Amino acid sequence: MKRWCVHFAEQYPIKIESSENKQHPWSDKPEKEAEKIFAKTYPAIYGNLKDLIDKLIKRTDPSKYFWGFRNCYDWQEFETHKIILR
Question: What is the pLDDT of residues 4-29, one digit of tens each?
């Protein structure tokens, strides 16, 4: 970030709410069926996550499906404006 402008590195956060917080096409489906629906709904995101499946499944704060966040009480915080400095 420089004065008065931002130079993007073409990197963006991906927010996929827990199926416990939001209804998705794959919500309440068995894991394999849900994964197929997710892959069809978001093929580019699924393609990027495919190589990370094992790590995502083993994380310490898993959600119902490997591609989502865990159930979270403060989702509204993701919707607010932010300034992030590195």
Answer: 677 777 777 777 777 777 889 998 89
Which spans in the chain are helix H? 31-41, 43-49, 53-58
Q: Decide if 11 is inside a domain.
A: no
**Is the pTM of the predicted complex or chain greater than 0.70?**
no
Q: CA-CA distance, 39 to 41, in Å (whole number)?
A: 6
* CA–CA dist 7, 10 (Å, integer): 9
> Do 66 and 31 contact (CB within 8 A), yes or no?
no
Q: How confident is the model at residue 85 (pLDDT cuts 50, 70, 90)?
A: low
Sign of CA dihedral 36, 41, 46, 57: negative
Full domain range(s) for residue 62: 31-79
Number of domains observed in the structure of the chain: 1
